[in-house]
Amino acid sequence: MSKDEVAVLAPAAHMPAHAAEHLFGNVADDWAAAEVWLAQVADNSRNASQETVATYRFHLAKLRWYVDQVGGGMPSQWSVQEVKDFRDFLANLPNYALSVKGARLGEDGYTPFRVKPAASSQADILRFVRAMLTAFHAAGYIRIHPMALMRSAKPRRIDVTRSVPTDLYDLILCSMAAQPHSDHARYQRYWRDRFVLIWLRETGIRASELAGAQMQAVYRLSDPRAVRTYWMMRVDEAHAKGARARSIPLTREAIDALMAYRTAFGLPALPAPGETQALVLSTKTVPMPIGAGHVKAVADRRYFGAWNAVSTRQAIYKIVKTCVQRAVSALQEQGRFADAAQLRKASPHWLRHTFAKGALLQGHDIRHVAAALGHTSIHTTMTYTEQDALDQIRAWEQIRPGTLAEDL
User: Fold this and answer.
1) What is the mean pLDDT of the chain?
2) What pLDDT is recorded for position 112?
3) Which residues are paired to 307 by β-bridges?
4) In angstroms, rounded to a whole number, what is the distance separating the alpha carbons of residues 167 and 367?
5) 163, 282, 257, 247 alpha-carbon torsion, rounded to 10°
């Protein structure tokens, strides 16, 4: 057999091995192969939560839009250069790739790119592509991994400056309270938004964990040694990062915020065991079945408590940013432009950092703070306050007090 005949029979290096055996079975294309992989990721509950799969799907939508609209061939056929082309596309996202404001999936003007991705978001998308291609390669779907020689994007590093000082946090709450609550929906929204801000700050949970929680996540736990009963929040593995379920003690401020919010929505002040209603409720209602029909009047649905749910981290993010913007406007009116510029960057994750930093500086054991945050390593938790550096300072002061240079 000639070399030319061998070349015709041999599959191309970057072609998916559809004719050969691979672990994905009979799949039509890369997108079908990706679905098989994502289904397996979802099954591996020890390594991934529902939130991980949802994030992967969000990144997959971006990749697919790029392939469909920009070109470059299917990912299974990519070379190193085509990976770089996608990387450059993300870094310099053209305006035509941005979704029209308000457009939804399937509507004209919709794209999965709501904003131009920041550097950290670009790295997240590329890490997803690498994970997908790695799975393709491991399953025998592709023969050569186009990103094998490319350096992996570094994971995000925690920026210890990304926290909200106490005075600015208080200003956010005061600015919210100063807004008119002229109708019932605004009144409910105020107490709901206040609850969201306080819980993110007092528990350190992620926005996705708050959005995925139900009312039954709040429960009582008795301590037989202290002969006392405390309020806790359970973060289930379906919504916890890395599927690491955990329980978090609730402060009085957190439980008071929950009671005020539930009362505003016409619910008993404290949740009952087995209450499956979403923890974060929308002021909008959903159709409610009654007999052979549905309750259509909004006032009636409100009466029956047929509330919709705030069930995405994007919705939690929007709530926080709206509340923050009111405080930013107040700071600008006071001429505090530097504080306004800093606070404008605040997000739900900033409140998580604020919780961690505050708990550590108040003297909480770092292992307990790490457990509340869901960190697998205390080294991650230590970065919130530069704990190594603080330990050195305290040791130095104990042995040679007064010799270190202090800021006066």
Assistant:
1) 84
2) 93
3) 285
4) 28
5) -70
Q: How many whole angstroms separate alpha carbon 287 and alpha carbon 294?
A: 6
pLDDT at 9: 44
Can you say whether the dihedral through the CA atoms of 60, 64, 70, 73 is positive or negative?
positive
Cα–Cα dist 307/301, whole Å: 8
Q: Over the stretch 279-292, which tens digit does the pLDDT of each residue have? A: 999 988 777 666 55
Pick the CATH number of 166-389 from 3.40.190.10, 3.10.400.10, 1.10.760.10, 1.10.443.10: 1.10.443.10
Closest by CA position to 217, among listed 201, 198, 203: 203
Instruction: Report yes or no: 78 and 130 within 8 Å, Cβ to Cβ.
Output: no
Copy the structure tokens of residue 102.
Answer: 């308000």
Quickly list DSSP for 341-365: HHHTT--HHHHHHHHHHHHHHTT--
Q: Is pLDDT above 90 for 8?
A: no
What is the structure's pLDDT at 158? Answer: 53
- Kind and range of the H or E element at 220? strand 218-223
Does residue 131 have a pLDDT over 60? yes
Domain extent listing, the chain: 11-138, 166-389
The first and second tokens of residue 165, run together, are 């000082």
| Rounded distance between C-alpha atoms, residue 408 and residue 393, angstroms | 16
Of 118 and 18, the structure prediction assigns the larger pLDDT to 118
Please compute the mean of the pLDDT values over residues 149-167 and round it to a whole number: 72
Q: Is 130 helix (H, G, I), strand (E, B) or coil?
A: helix
Q: Exposure string (b/e) for 344-359, b if CB count within 10 Å is 16 or more?
A: eebbbbbbbbbbbbbb
